[in-house]
């Protein structure tokens, strides 16, 4: 089984590197996969401030939890100008969200005004803005679909500015996505607006449209210099978490890193001063959002 899973991961990486061409997106392919937990997962269960189970341990870095009483009073939360409270205490921000959370020292940073936009230099310094930037993170959201034609929800990190400034290099990011068709996947954006998409993975819990559910994005660096991406789903918000997808960026994913002074398939290893919760053309009620700096697991199946 271990050999099979390893070969499957290698095959997916090969398919990705061979499928991208002429600045086009990879075609979405739905496949069935079975995943094994990392060795550290669930060894010591703990819960966050909302009673939501943590997948990985918090390190000595920053933890952010949504202020459910008055989110607009939180200096770390921004892009919330259309937020309204629902009768049940959850919130809605309309059909378009770019709800973002500053890192520990990122409050009020000026987007598009970093010291360097050179990927090689960023790989050496390890951050866009300050050493306390979000890097190895577990991002958690609790959601209820209320309507609209949008495809799903995105949680992303390692970006500082999503625009065409500086050749779009400020948009470098990993985007973990869950869709309302029973699948999830991973996107890598080296420059704005081009994304490189992984295969869609069917999770088996349906379209998630008629009840509250929780979705976790996990992104962390590996000692090898690679980056591990994981998607986790608690389909009925009862702390019954399942890993529904994982992907290692081992290179060979993306081709336009040279626009920013890096390798064509540049791996995005640096931190960012913001994390973002995004959706388009869909109404989503949300609550209990959080972002935590985590201790990357010591052992992982794909490294």
Describe the model.
The protein is mainly beta. The protein has one domain (2-294): Jelly Rolls (Sandwich), CATH 2.60.120. It has 2 helices and 17 strands. Strand 13 (213-221) and strand 14 form a beta hairpin. Mean pLDDT is 88; it is low at 1-43.
Based on the coordinates given, report the CATH architecture. Answer: Sandwich
Mean pLDDT: 88
The value of Rg in angstroms is 18 Å
Listing every helix as H and every strand as E from the N terminus to the C terminus, the arrangement reads HEEEEEEHEEEEEEEEEEE
How many angstroms separate the termini?
Answer: 17 Å
> Which CATH class applies here?
Mainly Beta
- Which class of secondary structure composition applies to the elements? mainly beta
Tell the overall outline: globular
Percentage of residues in DSSP E strands:
35-45%
- CATH topology type: Jelly Rolls
> Mind telling me the CATH superfamily name?
Exo-inulinase, domain 1
